[in-house]
Amino acid sequence: MTMTKRFEAIRIIGFLLALLYVTSLAFYALYIPVVSFRLHAALLMVLLAVLFVATLGIYGRRRPARYVLIGGNVLLGAYTLGLAFVYPRVVSWWFAVGALAFGVYFCSRDVRAYFGTPVRKGRSILVIDDDEILIRTVRTILTAHGYTVAAAHKGEDGLHIAKHQRPDLILLDVILPGIKGREVCRRLKTDKLTKHIPVIFLTAKDSQDDIEAEMQAGGEAHLTKPVNRESLLVTVQGVIKG
């Protein structure tokens, strides 16, 4: 699955969680009149309301929202797990386990990449592509976010720069003059000086077979041309921080 599709899945999960939190909040509101469960119902409603607001932060990629979703789901899971033994008809232990699972999910690599983390000053990226307009576009986007960008128009030149400059990341086209992109990636991954450098393929070839071939050649991720600013930034940041 490409990084873009993974991020779409995160948004869908966020939407479904928002529905779950609202539905659960309404459910526990029915138990406010029950004296023996009133305090628990009130606490659960507050916690669910906070989690609902946090899910809205998913769409704005607000990092504090991820922290709230982690802590809130762990707290919700632990609290409802205890209640499930005392009030089994009101609180399901499946609900508790699910909340704990979502707390773990929001700690995952893909979610961290989606929300992003600050870029360390001086991160360097090498773009290997024969399209000068694309290089300028990518350079403008990345330099505005603290990256330094070098470029090569041929595979041979890209290999030379990679060996001597050791960039933090390489953006690589498939169709290049001379050595093609996948072969460039294979050579990078078999050279002890460059094998640690992650490679993102940036190409117009986007069939499933093409993407699988890129991954087999050693690629970390795939981006489809024309370049999308949002996808470029989150994918680059996710791969570098991963």
Describe the structure using short key phrases.
alpha/beta; Rossmann fold; 10% strand; 242 residues; 62% helix
Account of the 3D structure:
- Helices cover 62% and strands 10% of the residues.
- It has ten helices and five strands; from the N terminus they run H-H-H-H-H-E-H-E-H-E-H-E-H-E-H.
- Strands 2-1-3-4-5 form a five-stranded parallel β-sheet, sandwiched between helices.
Judged by helices, strands and strand pairing, the structural class is: alpha/beta
What's the gyration radius in Å?
23 Å
Regions with little confidence, pLDDT below 50 for 5+ residues? none
Overall mean pLDDT: 90
Corresponding CATH superfamily of the largest domain: Response regulator
Tally the helices: 10
Quick one: biggest sheet?
Answer: 5 strands, parallel
The domain count comes to 2
Helix-strand pattern: HHHHHEHEHEHEHEH
Number of strands: 5
Strand order of the largest sheet: 2-1-3-4-5
What is the percent of helical residues? Answer: 55-70%
Shape: elongated
How far apart the termini lie comes to 16 Å
CATH architecture designation of the largest domain: 3-Layer(aba) Sandwich
